[in-house]
Amino acid sequence: MLIKVLIFVCWLVYSVNSSGKNETGLDPTGENVCTRTIKYFVNKTQLYMRQVLVPYYDCDGISIFGDCPFWAQTKKFRSESKSSVKNVLVVRTKNISECCPGYQQYNSSCPTAVCKDGCLNGVCVAPNKCLCSKGYTGPTCNQDHNECLVSNGGCSHACINTKGSFLCSCPIGWILKDDKKTCEDHDECLVLNGGCSHACINTKGSFLCSCPIGWILKDDKKTCEV
């Protein structure tokens, strides 16, 4: 039975040591795992020799019938070595694995970067480094990026900044093309003749109503009358 217990203990120790993980559960070869050496103390019992004074009595050569009379006895001491034990603190070292600064543990490695102030409109890609979503900037992606400040945002006319984005706008009489950036003239005459009672003349950004010879344009600028 004792042999079986010893075999089990040896197997257990081998399994722990061969797993490659330490007390933190991290694999020393894992992603973003750092190793450092720490000191610790172990209370150990130590055997040592010490000198003690042992009393004895000497008669200085006086003897009566082979015995030392009490009145002739002189108390003396001699030094002897005796073994003893004491508790001492022994300094040991060991390597521990931990996440490298700026990374968070997951299972046996540290794959996740940590941004201590967060990334409001983005993702944390490295310790305290955010990758901002389009339209945002700043250390924590909390600032709107004004796209209109650079080349008018690519708009041919007006650029309107919005939170996290922007819009291109056109003057009255113009419409935004499919690229959402370029304005082109809107031919108002194509829809209900621009509201003109007779001829509609398209102009850049606007239109005019025209009347036949002998007719005049009323104050509404659309209706012709004789």
TrEMBL record:
It comes from Clytia hemisphaerica. Residues 1-18 form the signal peptide. The keyword Signal applies. Residues 111-142, 185-225 form the EGF-like domain. SUPFAM superfamilies: Growth factor receptor domain. Pfam families: EMI (PF07546), FXa_inhibition (PF14670). PANTHER family: EGF-LIKE DOMAIN-CONTAINING PROTEIN (PTHR47333:SF4), VON WILLEBRAND FACTOR C AND EGF DOMAIN-CONTAINING PROTEIN (PTHR47333). This is EGF-like domain-containing protein. Keywords: Disulfide bond, EGF-like domain, Glycoprotein, Repeat, Secreted, Signal. It is found in: Secreted.
